[in-house]
Amino acid sequence: MLLNITDLEEFKAILDNDINPIVVDFTAHGIQVKVDVNSANEVATDCAIKELPTFQFYLRRDKIFELTGADKDALKRYLDSCVVKAELQKEFDDFDVSDDSADY
């Protein structure tokens, strides 16, 4: 899913409401983007974007990775790691600590 984020409130709402891994692509105006730093400067500032392109990976509002530059192989590695972290988080969330029958 591609979202065009234009303000900080919308950006934070996406991070708060989605349990899936989120990749945020910060690029300049004129390119298909998720966050356009020219029209959403407040978002870029809040996320401390220093160079373009910048990819930030979030899981439940927490930034877990950041990649700058256009290294396709590194982007794939980061994305794969992000998916693994999301799967581990889901397993942790699904763990029932109230189950007295569990063997420890």
Automatic annotation (TrEMBL):
InterPro entries: Thioredoxin-like_sf, Thioredoxin_domain. It comes from Chaetoceros tenuissimus. Pfam families: Thioredoxin. Keywords: Disulfide bond. Residues 33-80 form the Thioredoxin domain. Signal peptide: none annotated. This is Thioredoxin domain-containing protein. PANTHER family: THIOREDOXIN-LIKE PROTEIN 1.
